[in-house]
Every structure is written in structure tokens, then in C-alpha cells.
Amino acid sequence: MKLNLGCGDRHQAGYVNxxxxxxxxxxxxxxxxxxxxxxxxxxEVISDDFIEHIEGDKKIALMNELHRVLVPDGLLKIQVPTxxxxxxxxxxxxxxxxxxxxxxxxxxxxxxxxRFHKPYGITxxxxxxTEKLWEWEGMPLLTLELRAVK
Length: 150
Prior knowledge:
Blueprint: E1 2-5, E2 16-19, E3 26-27, E4 42-48, H1 59-69, E5 70-81, H2 86-90, H3 111-120, E6 126-136, E7 139-148
């Protein structure tokens, strides 16, 4: 199974398109945990301009849930506006703010992960496959491909 989370009107063929309202294939509030998918049941997740719409105090729960549903070595594709520019701050529906260093806390081998994952309650563990900073209409975006370590 492949999921396109927070799809809005950008449906992806071959994916289950999920959002809080129609026209999603599945209408579900993704800020509520646990999600309706079994542990290790999803091969790939697209999160294109979605995670910044989840409350900041739920960042760890969000990353833990993404990791939970992915199969071992499952692929997580994230695109998010970074705090390096106005894109993160200008949208009034953004509820959390991300920077490329935010993902250190979920990356196996990174000193931030190794030191803090247990006391912070982080069960998510990923390897960064690709990381790219780029701009769209003057707004810095971060695109990551992460592999679930289980």
C-alpha cells in the first residue's frame, strides 16, 4: 500500500489519497493518532506540504506514527517549507515549523537522535536517502526521502 497524506486536490495514481476533507479517497483527521493502518503495512508515504499542518506539540507523535505504519525500509517522501524563508511563516494554517535539522532527531546515527530519542519518546528511526533544499516562488522548500529503520 502507498499513502498520499494531506493530498488536498493533488491525488496521486497508485496511492490511497488521504485528507481531512473530500475529494480524498479516505477522509481522516491525520492529527489524531493512531492512524487506521496496521503497523508495518505501508510501503511508501508521500507527505507533500502536509506535516506543517500538524500541531507543533505533535511532531514526535507524527514522526512516530509515520514510522509505525511503514514497512521495514519503507520510503517516506517529505516536502515541507523550511524556517529559512517566508513559506513556513506566511500560511495561517501552518501549525508547526520545520528545518532540515529538525530531522536529526529521527535519523539513526545522528548525535541528536542517539542522545535524545529515548528520553524524548521518539520511536521513529530513519536513514536519510536524499535531501534537497530548493526554492519555489522565492520560498525555500526541503525535500527528503527517508527509509524506515526497523
